[in-house]
Design brief:
- With 143 residues, the chain is of the alpha/beta class.
- It has a single domain, classed as HUPs (Rossmann fold), CATH 3.40.50.
- The strands form 2 sheets. The protein has a 5-stranded parallel beta sheet, with helices on both faces.
- Strand 3 and strand 4 form a beta hairpin.
- Keywords: Cytoplasm.
- It is found in: Cytoplasm.
Length: 143
């Protein structure tokens, strides 16, 4: 099956590395196909109901360094593809991925599976699980 616009989710994990590598192979073997690599930035609130979180000196810079490293990794992976782009999204990861896929007429989502295990996944949830449950297009989960 030919896909015209693939969305690959990337968070820097080994599973997302594999997912992005797989997406690049699919798009590379189908000239004219488009790839968007989505990275979701989730910022925790610095205060909650009267309690505050004090950020130590340099933490904001460390976070920005990490984000820049991820952007460079994504750029390096897709540089050989003529129709590839990077989207930095904000908010809940699964929701942002699904909304971006819908708004940009993607016809496949490729996402890594972190393999949390049944108990941790039940307690914490899983982005890939939520994407699969709510997607209106095919989702390919890479282990």
């Amino acid at each position: 099956m030919n896909y015209h616009h693939i969305l690959a989710a990337y968070d820097g994990s080994k599973a997302s590395e594999k997912a992005l590598t797989h997406a690049v192979k699919i798009v590379g073997s189908h000239p004219g196909s488009r790839l968007t690599v989505a990275h979701v930035v989730t910022r925790l609130p610095y205060s909650l109901a009267g309690y505050g979180l004090v950020l130590t000196d340099g933490i904001q810079e460390k976070i920005q360094e990490y984000e820049n490293t991820l952007l460079q990794q994504m750029t390096d992976k897709i540089e050989s593809l003529p129709y590839a782009s990077i989207a930095v999204l904000k908010g809940n990861a699964a929701t942002a991925i699904l909304e971006h896929a819908t708004e940009n007429n993607c016809d496949l989502i490729i996402i890594g599976n972190r393999g949390l295990g049944p108990i941790r996944e039940w307690m914490l949830g899983s982005v890939s699980h939520e994407v699969v449950q709510q997607a209106k297009i095919p989702v390919l989960i890479i282990k």
